[in-house]
Each structure stands twice: as C-alpha cells, then as structure tokens.
Amino acid sequence: MARYYRAVEQRNLPVSTEITGYALSFFVYLHAVEPEERYLAAAMRAARFLAREAWDRRSGAMPFEMGTPAYSYFFDCGIIVRGLLAAWRASGEQEMLDAAVAVGNSMLRDFAGQDGDYHPILALPQKTAEARDRSRWSRSAGCYQLKSAMAWWDLSEATGEGCFREPYDRVREYSIAGFRDFLPGHADRAKVMDRLHAFCYFLEGLMPCAKDAPCAAALGEGIARAAGLLREIAPEVARADVYAQVLRARLFADWLGAVPLDRVAAAEEAKALAEFQAADSDPRIDGGYWFGRKGGEWLPFVNPVSAAFAGQALELWHGGAEAQAHRHLLI
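Structure (tokenized):
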C-alpha cells in the first residue's frame, strides 16, 4: 500500500510498510463487521507481504519503504506488529504470530535509547540512531509512541511473555508524565493540526489500561484538549484523520468505562468527518477520504490511513456498542 495517492498527478508514492500494516488491520476490521471472504483475503495478502517480502531476515529489520532500505521507524514497526497480530487472530496462522514477535523483538533490541526511551528512526543497514529533532514530532521520542508501544502489550497477551509488558508500561509512564507539553507545540496552526494527529496516537495507546486511574484521567483531559484545539483550528485547516481519531478515542474510552461519551460533541465530529468522503469518477478516489482541507479547499491527497480511520470511526459511531469488545480491532 502506498503512503498517498497523488490525485492531481495520478501517481502513487512508494509502497510503505507502515501503511500496509494499517491496511491489513482495516481489512481485518472490515471482515469482523461484514464477514466477506474478500476482506480476509486482502488482509492475508498484506500480512504475507510484510512477513515474507518486507521483513529483512538477515538484518532483522523492517524498512520504512520498499526499494533500497534506508530507514526503519519505531512507530511504523508497532503498527506492523499490531497488523500481523490482527491477521493471526483472524486466521490462526502461526507464521503471522512469529513475524509479529520478530518485529516486536527488533523494537526492543534495536531502538532502545540510553535514557530509557526509544529512538524514533534508525538508519539501515547499520541500525544507527538518526539525530532527533524536537521541532518535528516524528523525529522525536514522545507520548505519540505509546500507540506503537501498545504492540508490546498485545504481544504479551498473545504469547504470555512478560518481557513485552514492561516496556509498554515504561513508555506509558513517561508519556503520561509528559503529554501536556506536546500541544500546541508550534506557532503554525497547520503544524498544530499535524501534532493533533500524533497526540491522538497517545490517546489510542492508553486503551489497554483505560480503567486505571492515571490512564482514565489522561484520557479525559487529553480528549478534551484535542477536541478543543480541533474545533478552534478546523475553520483554517483540518485533517480527516484527526476528526476520526478524536471520535474513536471518545467511543472506546466510553465503552471501556474510562470517560463518559459526550454525545453532542461526538455527533458534531461525525458529521464533520463524513464531509471528507470523496465522490469521484476515478475509482481510485471514489469512496475514499480526502486527507485534509485548508482555506476551504481540499488538499489533493487520498490517504489510505485517513480512509481507514474515517471508515472505522463512522462505522463505530453508527454501529453502536456491538464493537465495544474489540479493542484489538482499533486500527
């Protein structure tokens, strides 16, 4: 799966392992909602690609994009692990669990920093840590990494191996301690909207322990903070995935008994999110979701992740409580 389809140029970006992992998780979710064979078949094609072609067994690394391996991202690896675990739960194929464990061990082994955190990016093939940049969230260690660390929690559940639980707990602790400093994080409103997307990863990463008092408090405060900034900035610039992430965080936090659902706010977010869905004669665009809107104009990107997040958020909103038992299906 490519990171973007550039609608104006009618051109895909290179194949992304992270986006393929997201697509895999989305197909498994679709199969759970509507058990059609085509959804599971698509999920397994993506899973086998990640396990057999993308994963470099010799170096024990998952590259950022296909082609000449240059980088590996901690965050991407966590998304891929969760996708492979979703495929394993849906199919029972041991190969998928084995592949998830291999990538999870790489996260533990190769990304560990000297200060107890995790490097965001490694240069391949040497696996040397890239210089961090505090002005760019994707090049920093921070609370957004908790969603990726959630892969370790899921691996601990799947394997019974306690070694995976401790690193999740460590990332959770420093994420809760520092999340208030993440927003707004930039003077440019468009950059703040980008950071909102990352901040919602922190909210999603809290879901395994949502009922614990510190996590529930962080969820309540974080959802209110994210929703407030989204409403404030959206008239100037907005992203479909942020609307979807805030809505999903509300729903799961309510279903898990952590934060009661604000139905009025959720309905407003669902209505705004639905407006991002594209209707177009090009089948590569039709039904997808525009990445964002700026100055009243759609940004010319159709993003697989925006489509997956938006599709899931709206299905959960309209489908109701039947999905509450499926935390593992959170894309």
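The radius of gyration is 19 Å. The chain has two domains: 1-166, 182-331.
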